[in-house]
């Protein structure tokens, strides 16, 4: 990890803040993009910024956690690991109120649609990799459209699920060995 990043983390800790830790395993292409550009490097990786800011907001909404943490975290250390080479890259992500507000607006709109019994139109961007990691691909109109256009079989989707399960096991095994 770069010395300036270690120093920034230590500064947060010395000031009484907790620093979140997010560990991501990545395919070589995504890892290469992350290594060069961080999470804002492409459309798929940038979705992790929403996930991380969701963590920040969830912590801010939990009075029990606020009491135990004292000061709420403002930064998250993202550790990315290339699943092939096991190389690591790092980014220190700061809490972003704009992302949090955008996500809240999206969730509120989704809640209104669902309360009215309306499934919202999918926000399909054409990045089918994003759909491969979604847990509702069997029900999503965008994934169904993609499947019919590319004539992807259920067996292929099941193989992707098996691959993800294998990667999750690898991550779990590797996670035990991660240095603090």
| Cα-atom radius of gyration | 19 Å
How far apart are the termini? 12 Å
Largest sheet, in brief, is:
3 strands, mixed
| Average pLDDT rating | 75
Description of the structure:
This protein has 180 residues and is α+β, with helices and mostly antiparallel strands. The chain has helices spanning 3-14, 28-37, 43-61, 63-69, 97-115, 128-132, 141-150, 154-175; strands at residues 17-26, 71-82, 88-94. Strands 1-2-3 form a three-stranded mixed β-sheet, with helices on both faces. The radius of gyration is 19 Å and the shape is flat.
Brief overview, please?
This protein is of the alpha+beta class. Helix content is 58%, strand content 16%.
Question: Secondary-structure blueprint of this entry?
Answer:
Layout lengths: L2 H12 L2 E10 L1 H10 L5 H19 L1 H7 L1 E12 L5 E7 L2 H19 L12 H5 L8 H10 L3 H22 L5
Parallel strand pairs: 1-2
Antiparallel strand pairs: 2-3
Helix pairs in contact: 3-5
Defining key terms:
single chain, 180 residues, alpha+beta, three-stranded mixed β-sheet, 8 helices, 3 strands
